[in-house]
């Protein structure tokens, strides 16, 4: 079992990642940390609370960073709606957020289990950068940092920049240079991990209330992807990270040296990847996924709810 802390900004695809991590027998989900990204942190925290409550996922939820390190804040209502999780009427949570500071929680878990905790970060990297700045001695004690972010061939908020990186490029740059054992799921692979409308309709018929609600939420997400990008099929970006920890054979990888552009006028927030491998790699990048097997795994796991 992989022990993970999930850092997220739910978010429709984050929500699927939470459900997947919350049910898989291969994953021991120790806690969820929210971050501002798809919406403001009060919203992403509330969404994490209601998802774990409805899914009976018994894990603590901590509230993380409300603002990026340096840049002005951006959120993504065009994709996820104002609440960050628009499309179905979710009740307000009765579950309460933890009082403990999220960085102390993360540090404590790593100290208790050196080399045995994996951080999964599927929102802007603000919290992870703060972890690296506050506890540089613990970075090498983290088993793996798995992120969804960046793009080799294309961006999604700017021609060259992907949302999670663009929302806090300075944090991402700190994270890429902190010395983590880093695995990256860029847009190049997550845009292969699409869920199609017939599959979403199937999910809506699942007997579990939270999973059928998830199907309704994904219909909204499918529509916004069509409206904004004119593509058919909603990319399940964030669940790729969890699917990888459950079944790594679903993906193909290559190691690269990569940096984050923080000065470029046209390229601010781009992940600049050394395609020809001139430099010694600092990260492992997922490049391909078997979509059919990915959806099969997702459905098998969600059926357990
Ligand atoms: C990433 O941005 C967010 O909108 C999604 O949740 C995902 O983490 C994709 O660029
Ligand atoms: Ca996300």
UniProtKB/TrEMBL annotation:
Q: Tell me, which GO biological process terms does this entry list?
A: purine nucleoside catabolic process
Which molecular function terms from Gene Ontology are attached?
purine nucleosidase activity; uridine nucleosidase activity
Domain named Inosine/uridine-preferring nucleoside hydrolase: residues? 4-295
- Keyword Metal-binding assigned to the entry: answer is no
Keywords, A to Z, come to: Glycosidase, Hydrolase
Instruction: Kindly indicate whether the keyword Hydrolase belongs to this entry.
Output: yes
A GO CC term assigned to this protein in UniProt: cytosol
Q: Which domain of life is it from?
A: Bacteria
**Pfam families the UniProt entry points to:** IU_nuc_hydro (PF01156)
Q: Which SUPFAM superfamilies match?
A: Nucleoside hydrolase
Protein name per its UniProtKB record: Inosine-uridine nucleoside N-ribohydrolase
Which taxonomic lineage does the organism of this UniProt entry have?
A: Bacteria, Thermotogati, Thermotogota, Thermotogae, Petrotogales
């Amino acid at each position: 079992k992989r022990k993970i802390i999930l850092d997220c900004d739910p978010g429709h695809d984050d929500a699927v990642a939470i459900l997947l991590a919350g049910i898989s027998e291969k994953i021991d989900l120790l806690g969820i940390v929210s971050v501002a990204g798809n919406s403001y942190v009060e919203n992403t925290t509330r969404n994490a609370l209601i998802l774990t409550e409805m899914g009976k996922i018994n894990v603590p939820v901590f509230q993380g960073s409300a603002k990026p390190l340096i840049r002005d804040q951006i959120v993504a209502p065009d994709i996820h709606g104002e609440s960050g999780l628009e499309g179905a009427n979710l009740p307000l949570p009765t579950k309460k957020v933890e009082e403990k500071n999220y960085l102390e929680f993360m540090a404590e878990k790593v100290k208790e289990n050196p080399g045995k905790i994996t951080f999964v970060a599927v929102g802007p990297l603000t919290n992870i950068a703060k972890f690296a700045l506050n506890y540089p001695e613990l970075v090498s004690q983290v088993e793996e940092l798995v992120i969804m972010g960046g793009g080799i061939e294309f961006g999604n908020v700017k021609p060259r920049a992907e949302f999670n990186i663009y929302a806090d490029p300075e944090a991402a740059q700190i994270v890429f240079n902190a010395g983590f054992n880093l695995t990256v799921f860029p847009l190049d692979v997550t845009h292969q991990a699409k869920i199609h409308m017939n599959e979403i309709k199937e999910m809506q018929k699942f007997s579990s209330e939270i999973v059928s609600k998830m199907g309704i939420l994904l219909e909204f997400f499918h529509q916004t992807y069509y409206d904004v990008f004119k593509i058919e099929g909603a990319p399940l970006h964030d669940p790729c990270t969890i699917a990888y920890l459950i079944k790594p054979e679903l993906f193909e990888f290559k190691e690269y040296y990569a940096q984050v552009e923080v000065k470029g006028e046209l390229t601010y927030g781009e992940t600049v990847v050394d395609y020809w491998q001139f430099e010694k790699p600092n990260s492992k990048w997922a490049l391909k996924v078997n979509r059919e097997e990915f959806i099969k795994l997702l459905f098998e796991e969600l059926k357990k709810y």
